[in-house]
Amino acid sequence: MNKAIKNIKPLGFPWETQDPFLFCVYHKDDYPKGNAQMGPDASLSGRNLGQDFDPSNAWRMYHGDTVPGFPQHPHRGFETVTVVPKGLVDHSDSLGAAGRFGNGDVQWMTAGKGVNHCEMFPLLKQDEENPLLLFQIWLNLPSKSKFVEPHFAMLWNEKIPVYKSDDGKTSVTVVAGNIGEVKAPAPAPDSWAADPAHEVAIWTIKMDANAEWELPKASAGVNRSIYFYQGESLTINDEVLQSHQCVELNPSETVSLKSGTSETRILMLQGKPIGEPVAKYGPFVMNTQDEIRQALQDYQRTQFGGWPWPKNDHVHPRERGRFAKHADGRLEEM
Q1: How does DSSP assign 248-278, residue by residue?
Q2: What is the pLDDT of residues 221-247, one digit of tens each?
Q3: Which residue among 11, 71, 230, 301 is least crowded, i.e. fewest CB within 10 A of its CB?
Q4: Cross-sheet strand order for the sheet of 201-207
Q5: Distance separating alpha carbons of residues 291 and 279, to the nearest angstrom
Q6: What positions does the domain Pirin N-terminal occupy (predicted)?
Q7: CA 273 – CA 25 distance, rounded (Å)
Q8: Quick check: 113 and 78 in contact, CB under 8 A?
Q9: Measured between alpha carbons, how far is 49 from 12 in angstroms, rounded to an integer?
Q10: What's the rounded Cα separation, in Å, for the pair 296 and 285?
Q11: Contact present, 17 and 24 (Cβ < 8 Å)
């Protein structure tokens, strides 16, 4: 194994990550045509509705029983960065905020002291299939920020910069961090990523067949992982990898990437570790078990603000375009 590579492991479910990240969930669903309720126009017979995670199926309902997705559920103590290259997501939360985003958009949500939200995958098209591809990345918050006010920001596809290699064969969508002068939009204000010294980077990399590209170096001590999820092969310096592998890299070593004979897709996650104890229980991520118990008690008592929507699996009208309505009433229409 060359000096650039620290570790290689297969991709599981969810994908394992390094501090400051908690994990990454990769959803790829070839949803069929939609029905009148924006669910699948197909039989749900035999599916374990509420727990439909069978990877042998071409698509899953997850916790939805009419519309695919994740009905009302709470979070505290971390952030979600939801990258949606294909398909649409409907967001609704306990603060009254809402949105519809996808087809290249990213939602950055700071759960902070606590929020309820739902994430549904409405199948809007009734005359053709509704494929979905998304990454949901859980990014930890340091102890000083675990009780900040909840917040969400939309990084619209049109405003997320794309780096192009000199030969044009590699393109990198810069969700967080920067490549030279190509700089991502500002992350959520209380995020670990908001301080440039933490070198947080979230990049989606597309390489043409037989392309070569050198990753820019980062500082020693930064955690860096790449997730090779599509393509025939990937060569890192002299190490040849097959698809569906995670590689932990030495950030201060030269890393040359070479794609195989087909288009290659990679997710890269990077950041300075927070380096604090992590206590997890389902949707809560704190520093101690006492804080987890407190989170459970607080949620039982307050429901993190309650639920202002008519259904736990709330979706927006079919004809609604991409939008974000914030808790303060500010509206973004795309």
Answers
A1: EE-TTS-EEEEE-SS-EEEEEEEE-------
A2: 999 999 999 999 999 998 999 999 999
A3: 301
A4: 5-10, 245-249, 223-230, 264-271, 201-207, 170-176, 162-164
A5: 8
A6: 52-139
A7: 20
A8: no
A9: 22
A10: 11
A11: yes
Q: How far apart are CA 62 and CA 286, in angstroms?
A: 25
Written as six digits, the tokens of 52 are 């439909």
**CATH of the domain spanning 1-12+161-276:** 2.60.120.10
- Rounded to 5 degrees, what angle do the CA atoms 148, 154, 160 make? 125
Q: How far is CA 301 from CA 22, 245, 281, 297, 313, in A?
A: 27, 43, 18, 6, 22
Which H helix or E strand runs over 129?
none
Q: What CA–CA distance (Å, rounded) separates 279 from 158?
A: 37
Sheet holding 88-93, edge to edge: 69-75, 115-120, 88-93, 98-102, 323-325, 331-333
Both tokens of 269, joined, read 């996650």
Q: In the predicted model, is pLDDT for residue 1 greater than 80?
A: no
Q: Which two tokens stand for residue 88?
A: 């649409």
Q: Is the Cβ–Cβ distance between 201 and 271 less than 8 Å?
A: yes
Q: Please list the residue range(s) of the chain that carry CATH number 2.60.120.10.
A: 1-12+161-276, 21-159+277-315
Q: Which CATH superfamily is domain 21-159+277-315 in?
A: Jelly Rolls (2.60.120.10)
